[in-house]
Records
---
Amino acid sequence: EATAKVIDGKAVAKKIRDEITIEVSRMKESIGVVPGLAVILVGDRKDSATYVRNKKKACESVGIKSFEVRLSEDSSEEEVLKSVSGFNDDPCVHGILVQLPLPSHMDEQNILNAVSIEKDVDGFHPLNIGRLAMRGREPLFVPCTPKGCIELLHRYNIEIKGKRAVVIGRSNIVGMPAALLLQREDATVSIIHSRTKNPEEITREADIIISAVGVPNMVRGSWIKPGAVIIDVGINPVEDASAPRGYRLVGDICYEEACKVASAITPVPGGVGPMTIAMLLSNTLTSAKRIHNFQ
Ligand code: NDP
């Protein structure tokens, strides 16, 4: 039977948003500044539009002002760079987010480099990532999804220091920064990717697994050490004729099997997903506080 404790990302995210709401209004009342988040959306990908809409809604719900620029699929890289630089200079904007992926004719690196590191609330600027990787340096921002994973471990009092942690996936936005964060928290970290042989032998050693792969139910119960803690970042649609839209979302971890072995696990949905947006709001608030020197 299931024994794992469910790590309720939805509830934690709600609590964090409530904390942010209080801080935003305290800031507004004390110094008359409202934190602002600017989102640049290029092209008409439906999923990107949905993410942007959700981010804007989340901003409103905590009192953060949101700004949006929408550019067409065929706009030029220069136009995107111009929007970025406009927001870099705008004192009402404390966070800038370029929704990825960008159309293929644009150089993502160029555009991410152009975001002021003081407003890089996604934490994707190479200087922020570089600082994250270096001992004795502090990034101004940490990428939201991996930050949300670590925040869940903290809020559930799960010790990271000295533990064996395994990250599955090495993407710039999730896997790689998750591994760096775990290492900063004094875990001993292994990284599994698509060329790793016998991944299950490595995961079986893990006290903590963070999975960001994009393969539904890849990690089976037999891959997991009894008592391990599982953070499942994957959001994967699988066909389900009985679901209203004909599909449902599952993680990278085979949830039913994992529940019988792990000591704690995040569900999909309702685990890491809601934390990502909460961390974006938190980064935006932090940025506004830093820019206005408000404690
Ligand atoms: P990417 O596709 O950028 O990266 C996937 C990583 O998984 C790569 O490093 C890849 O290895 C590795 N990988 C792929 N297949 C295997 C395999 N069979 N065995 C081992 N490793 C494998 O994905 P993202 O990091 O952007 O996203 C990962 C998942 O997380 C997706 O399901 C996505 O939807 C979800 N996600 C959820 C978010 C949230 O808010 N909860 C936010 C962002 C993503 P290699 O490097 O060798 O190619």
---
Amino acid sequence: LPLVALISGRGSNLKAIIDAADPLIEIRAVISNRSQAGGLLYAQQAGIATAIVDHSLFKTRLDFDIALQTAIDQYQPKLVILAGFMRILSPELVAHYRGRLFNIHPSLLPAFKGLHTHRRALESGVKEHGASVHFVTEDLDAGPVIIQARVPVLPDDNEDSLAYRVLQQEHRIYSQAIHWFAEGRLQLQGQVALLDGQPI
Ligand code: GRF
């Protein structure tokens, strides 16, 4: 399965996917909107092509997204994954990759969409937190969930300790979701994610 990954920063999810070395997937390129993204080094070490599409060089989101789509489509991916990609995508781009665009979000969606999920989880006093892989649709962090992982929120947790516990699970479930897709078992039908033809 040819895949393109979009990153903005550290790239630990990307690294986990590279390290999983799933024989069903081929990471054709890693594209970042920031030239300083640490994750680019993981790609280079693994011999994966990298590209920068710097959002600050474009006047509008649509202009950026057109350049981004052109960069992605050069690699003809069957799946595009957002792995810590910190830009909101236009509906046009989302529609172009409909059913083959994944994101990972550090919360048990639909809880805590958006930023600072760990802080907000701690502030709200939930006993359980986690991460979700979902199909990207037009609404931010609202696409159908493919897989979630739960972790306990412990009494002495701070943002960092909780983020770390969640991140370990992110690394596991992102590879799992990609593997299912590569096996042809995942589909987006309207607003419903299907695994082996059954709603998730
Ligand atoms: C992860 O927590 C991911 O869920 C969120 O941004 C973070 C990216 O981390 N969207 P990394 O760049 O993969 O290390």
---
Amino acid sequence: MALEKSLILLKPDAVQRRLCGEIISRLEKKGLKLVGMKMLVVTKELAAKHYEEHVEKPFYPLLEEFITSGPVVAIVVQGPEAVSVVRGMMGKTNGRESAPGTIRGDFGLSRQVNLIHGSDSPEAAARETAIYFQPEELVEYSSSLDSWVC
Ligand code: RTP
Ligand code: MG
């Protein structure tokens, strides 16, 4: 069982719809530990770095417009197999196809405006975390809950 970190963005629609608390609450209740969090507006340059795999795709202009349209909350969570755990909690990309019980399945109907980003591999998590956070902005702490929820 690998202890992993995952980089999460609560996208502009989550902020605009006042769903950040709800989503963070789900992550915390699952047992994931918050080890970094900040609010920022994603610039076009940052968007291109983050979504470098998509820059040449036909949907990128819309993705860029959406992700830079307002503030986001960037979060780093830590936990056992955190990357796949978070991806499971997010649901499929398209909210219409996401299962009930997932974040996108419960709160969204869109393929693009879909509330949350989560790293899709530990390597992506390391790359994306370095885009949004300086090393000193991440915290390390032990918690008595660790042994109960992991
Ligand atoms: P994310 O990277 O944001 O966690 O989402 P994902 O893995 O579920 O989906 P991905 O294929 O990586 O796409 C990145 C984001 O681009 C937008 N998108 N729009 N209009 C479209 O066809 C389309 N496809 C993707 C979504 O915001 C998606 O989350
Ligand atoms: Mg992705």
